[in-house]
Amino acid sequence: MGSGMDDRLRHMKHLSPRQLEQFQRDGYLVVEDFLPPAEVQRVKVDIDRVCHERRSMTRDADGFNLEKANDDSLDANAEAKRAGMFRKIQGAVFCIPAVKEVFASTKMLDCMEDIMGPNIYYHSSKVMFKPANGGAAKPWHQDAAYWKNYEPSQVTVWIAMDDATEANGCVWAIPGSHKLGLIPHVAKELQVEESRIDMKKATPVPVQPGGLLIFHSLVLHMSKKNTSDNNRCAIICDYDCGPNPSIDGKNEETNADGIWPLRTAKVETVIA
Ligand SMILES: O=C(O)CCC(=O)C(=O)O
């Protein structure tokens, strides 16, 4: 290990060197008990408030995607399972203040700095719902396949708002798959065919409310249909270590190029 790495390990702000090593080996890491229960409750109340305001929606609009009767989340005009039953809210930090507070907090950025280094930019965010008794599956994919014009330098934080278990559709991952490079994706809902995946390695990643699942944008992951009586909701933020425009578009936080620097290394100017 070089002295640069020694230095980095000495200055870790939230994670332990063992956790960093685990992330580097597997491409993902679970950090339990990151948000206290009261904070999880506060975020859930804010999500519920925003959903309640849109409870009559029957068509996708403004980043709000509904659960579809035919389970095809990409078919914006397909019949919704129920008005106001959402699958996803894209750009969540911009419409749900409590979600923004979590993802832009010092504690969260300290944690991400341990993994990504001192330059952290906003890439995108969402709420992913998986309603009880039928919330749709998400097939195997690498997030980098969705972000075609970007180098795969993003790291995602997925935070459980409910107890995410195998029964209600927790995420599954293939440890080490971030080292495989980008794998061809097919179909409308971009996905990797199972024949290309070492399915013996498929690992469920249950997370308790307030726990984090942190994963690299090349990690193969998926989640199954929710066949249980319990809802499963997660808030998600994707961070980039380069100054690239957010895929959620320009808004009050971004500069004219659509870039939102959340934390950048301070360069000391030496005056001779
Ligand atoms: O929350 C889920 O069920 C899946 C999330 C996911 O695959 C993603 O954000 O890329």
Structural class assignment: alpha+beta
Task: Count the beta strands.
Answer: 12
Corresponding CATH architecture: Sandwich
Give the averaged pLDDT, no decimals. Answer: 94
Coarse shape = globular
Largest sheet, in brief, is: 8 strands, antiparallel
Q: What is the terminal separation in angstroms?
A: 34 Å
Helix-strand pattern: HHEHEEHHHEEEEEEEEE
**Which small compounds were modeled alongside the protein?**
2-oxoglutaric acid
CATH topology-level fold name:
Jelly Rolls
User: Which radius of gyration do the C-alpha atoms yield?
Assistant: 19 Å
Protein traits:
Jelly Rolls; binds 2-oxoglutaric acid; alpha+beta; 272 residues
Set down the secondary structure blueprint.
Blueprint: H1 3-10, H2 17-26, E1 28-31, H3 37-53, E2 64-66, E3 86-90, H4 92-95, H5 97-103, H6 106-116, E4 120-130, E5 138-141, E6 154-160, E7 171-173, E8 203-205, E9 212-216, E10 221-223, E11 232-240, E12 261-263
Antiparallel strand pairs: 1-9, 2-3, 3-4, 4-11, 4-12, 5-10, 6-9, 6-11, 7-8, 7-10
Bound molecules: 2-oxoglutaric acid.
Short description:
The chain has 272 residues and is an alpha+beta fold. The protein has six helices and twelve strands. It has a single domain, classed as Jelly Rolls, CATH 2.60.120.
